[in-house]
Structures are given as C-alpha cells and as structure tokens.
Amino acid sequence: MGIQKFAILSTQSNIEWTGRKITGSHNGTIAIKEGFINLSNGKLNSGKFIIDTTSIKILDVTDPATNAQFAGHLASDDFFSIEKFPEAVLDITHVIDEHIEGNLVIKGISQPIGFDAAINTNGDTLTASGKLVIDRTKYDMKFRSGNFFKDLGDTLIYNDFHLNVNITAKAV
C-alpha cells in the first residue's frame, strides 16, 4: 500500500478554541490555511498543518464593539502577535496508535506537544479529530497568568487553552 498523501481541505476543516478565566470562558474558531497528512500502510505517519492566526474569531461575545476590542487584544503581543506571526504550525513527527506527537510553533516558538486523535478514511477522503491542551505561557503569552502576576483575583486567565481540531482531507 505504501505512502498515501492527503491534502487538507481548509474550507471543510476548522479549529474551535476555548480559553478559560476565573469568571467564565470564551470560545471561537481559527482556520487551517493548508496542510497535509501522510498515511503509511493505512496508518497515520506524518503531517503538517499551517494555521492562519489572522482568522481568529470570538463566537461568544455578541456586542460588535466588545468583540472587536477582544479580537484586537488576541491579535496583540499579549497573545498571538499576529502582525509578526500570521501563521502557527503543527508538525506531526511521531505516531503510536492514536497518540500523536509533534511540534507546535506559535509566535516563532516551537514546543513539543502530544495528543490523541481519531482518524477515519473512506476511499479518498480522510477525516480526523483531536483535542489539544496548550499552555499559552510556553509561547510567551503571559497576560494575566498566575505564573507571572500575583493578586490578579478574578481577572486571572488560566494558562491552558483548548483546541478541538476537525480535519477533512482528500487523497492527492
């Protein structure tokens, strides 16, 4: 069977993010710009996703002015620095069964990451989903982190944010 390459269909793939703070949480989406997944003898072997950080959206804030202000803050150096770093990259380097290991690059900082994913193939279509838990402070996102600032009270933002990734890809 050998190596089979699947190209990610960006319009049919997405990432849902959730960030939590003491007083609640926020959630939204971020787009996958492009990428590929390789299967070796029907099993995930490697892959690479390019994430478009400029596409970040906040879904739970409905007031347009507040949403724009929040989006601007996520785009700033406190968080994603999207003018300097318009892309983030997930590079899959090692797979054991459904556990995936790789490197996630955000703001030019590469950190190892591990997560579980469910992968299905049907003919020339591949679907995959997984949940990543990311410590934002490893990527120089220290804003209101209890690790770096004291006495934040109910303004504290938790260090971990969650990404639910859903991918659809076609064989090339």
UniProtKB/TrEMBL annotation:
Superkingdom of this protein's organism: Bacteria
SUPFAM superfamilies assigned: YceI-like
Lipid/polyisoprenoid-binding YceI-like domain mapped to chain residues: 5-170
Protein name: YceI family protein
Organism in which the protein naturally occurs: Chitinophaga oryziterrae
